[in-house]
Amino acid sequence: MLKWLSGVRRRNRSQIVDSLYGEIVAAARRPRLYADWQVPDTPLGRFEMVSLHLFLFLHRLRGENAGALREISQEVTDLFFREVDHSLRELGIGDLGVPKRMKKLARMFYGRLNAYGQALDSVDRNALADALRRNIAPERTVWNEAEALAAYVFDAQESLAALADEDLLSGKLRFPPLQEVDHAQ
User: Fold this and answer.
1) Domains in the chain: how many in total?
2) What is the Cα–Cα distance from 41 to 7, expressed in whole angstroms?
3) Which end of the chain is more exposed for a tag (fewer CB within 10 A), N or C?
């Protein structure tokens, strides 16, 4: 009986993690990000958007030192890296090249968590826009949409902060809508 109960618990936890990660990916794949906000519609551009939304989720859960939310945040992060590994393989990267690229992408991801987190914690929209510009569109000399994306990140932080822990524990996650971008800047 205990094995059956733990199997049910593990399946339920897996469904919650899958649901949360699915919402993160859905938010990162919104066409407006790529069409209107000029995020590069490339594997790296999509990595950046999933990383950004995962950052927002993890930022909401930081400080959860014990309990189910901390475990879930780790499981969602683990799922992200399994999906990145899978994507690299689908792109044709061989078994010998995947670990090297995974290390690079992990460094990139954790660097972004640090930069974005510092900007959010200090409520510095300009620093956040600069970090987003540097990471998402480094080849562009001008990317005005970075300011709009920074405003979205601050909105998303507030929106996620308002979510109850119980919602997250049941796999419910909502990101705010994307606003119109003024391209005349």
Assistant:
1) 1
2) 39
3) N
Confidence class of residue 7 from pLDDT cuts 50, 70 and 90?
Answer: low
Asked if the structure places residue 61 within a domain, the reply is yes
Residue 95 has a pLDDT of 83
**Integer Cα distance of 66 and 40 in angstroms:** 38
The answer as to whether 13 is a domain residue is yes
Residue 65 within any structural domain of the chain:
yes
Q: How far apart are the first and last CA of the chain?
A: 64
Residue 115's nearest CA partner among 102, 96, 100, 134 is 134
**Contacts with 87 (C-beta within 8 Å, 6 or more apart), sequence order:** 43
Return the structure tokens found at 70: 């901390």
Amino acid in position 111: G
The 10s digit of each residue's pLDDT in 20-68 is 999 999 999 999 999 999 999 999 999 999 999 999 999 999 876 557 8
Q: Flag whether 178 is in a domain.
A: no
